[in-house]
Design brief:
This protein has 302 residues and is α/β, with parallel strands linked by helices. It has a single domain, classed as Alpha-Beta Complex (2-enoyl-CoA Hydratase, Chain A, domain 1), CATH 3.90.226.10. The chain is built from eleven helices and ten strands. The strands form two sheets. It has a seven-stranded mixed beta sheet, sandwiched between helices. Strands 5-7-9 form a three-stranded parallel beta sheet, with helices on one face. Strand 1 and strand 2 form a beta hairpin. The longest helix is centred in the C-terminal third of the chain and has 21 residues. The chain is globular. The chain binds ligand LP6JUW53.
């Protein structure tokens, strides 16, 4: 309880400067808006929220084209949407999905980690930490409907969810591929993966930077279910119904029991983790690797 309140205060303090100037998307009644009860879609430029109040569920669609890279602004908007839904007693569950065809999320925004000042890296890393903490510890049931490729930070975001449904498309790979970029997944990325697939599988996946296609992702346990692409949303909804049928207080306390030790490790080492990130990302060799990787992505088109 104290942790939840502390985190809210912290989020508000962290978000205030970034949130300035954020526009709320004009409301419209969407197909998932719960029929005739008049509740409208809301959100922000990069996050569309489709509420279904009758079910107590909101579909949160990431729409930061072209690849839903997790920029500072996008993370801020995601956090604001999450907080808004958590504070509204109508909602007990969120389905996190993408509005960008074929891409769940390309992970952390490489342009936030390249050629910037150290102060920017501090601000960015705080936002990445906060996003992980808030999603990982959310009292809501959070289900990822993974309808696209999901490397690195995109995979991490899905690992904060309580359940992952992946579309069965061989292009939709998922994993923590940081080593392929010449960077190292921080301890809390690693811990989240260990909690999901175990130590040995994580050791292999992280060292080799493995991006698992659907069948492999299911076999190793990175995702809980693989379904035909046109059934991802409906499957996420039926899974949500099962989770929401459990007495909420018992489920929430159990989630906290399972996840708090992992979250506490980052909470106690937060500042040190920021320093580690900034020192690491400022290294010439790391900047060179990231620039070269971004260049390779751009040249792929040519
Ligand atoms: C001590 C701790 C230290 C460090 C820890 C740091 C942790 C980092 C974790 C991360 O998340 S790093 C990011 C890892 N992400 C990736 O490796 C994914 C890279 N992207 C791709 O593989 C592909 O873009 C895609 C498979 C996601 C999509 O492919 P496709 O549909 O063919 O699109 P394009 O490749 O043409 O990309 C379109 C456009 O978007 C830019 N872009 C792609 N990914 C990112 C990204 N993560 N950040 C920023 N920008 C990205 C790409 O450069 C293209 O830009 P244009 O200007 O050419 O349009």
């Amino acid at each position: 309880m104290a942790l939840a309140v502390g985190m809210r205060v912290l989020t508000r303090a962290l978000l205030r400067p970034w949130a300035r100037g954020l526009r709320v998307a004009p409301g419209r009644t969407g197909p998932a808006a719960g029929g005739g009860d008049g509740m409208r879609c809301f959100g922000s430029p990069r996050v569309l929220v489709e509420p279904d109040p009758a079910a107590g569920v909101a579909v949160v669609k990431m729409r930061n084209p072209p690849v839903n890279s997790l920029s500072l602004e996008f993370l801020t908007e995601l956090l604001i949407s999450l907080e808004k839904l958590e504070n509204d007693k109508t909602f007990h569950g969120i389905i996190l999905t993408s509005d960008c065809p074929g891409i769940f999320s390309a992970g952390l925004d490489l342009t936030e980690m390249c050629g910037r000042k150290p102060e920017h890296y501090v601000e960015y890393w705080k936002a990445v930490q906060e996003t992980w903490l808030r999603f990982y510890l959310s009292n809501l049931v959070v289900i990822a409907a993974i309808n696209g490729v999901s490397p690195a930070g995109g995979c991490l975001l899905s690992l904060t969810c309580d359940y992952r449904v992946l579309a069965n498309n061989p292009k939709y790979t998922i994993g923590l591929n940081e080593t392929l970029l010449g960077i190292v997944a921080p301890f809390w990325f690693k811990d989240t993966m260990v909690n999901t697939i175990g130590h040995r599988a994580t050791e292999r996946a992280l060292q080799l930077g493995l991006l698992f296609p659907p069948a492999e992702a299911l076999r190793v346990g990175v995702v809980d279910q693989v379904v035909p692409e046109d059934q991802v949303q409906s499957t996420a909804r039926s899974v949500m119904a099962q989770w929401l049928a459990i007495p909420d207080h018992a489920r929430q306390l159990t989630k906290t029991l399972m996840r708090k030790p992992t979250a506490d490790r980052l909470l106690t080492e937060r500042d040190a983790d920021i320093q580690t990130f900034v020192r690491f990302i400022c290294r010439d060799s790391v900047q060179k690797s990231l620039h070269a990787y971004l260049e390779k992505l751009k040249q792929k088109k040519g």
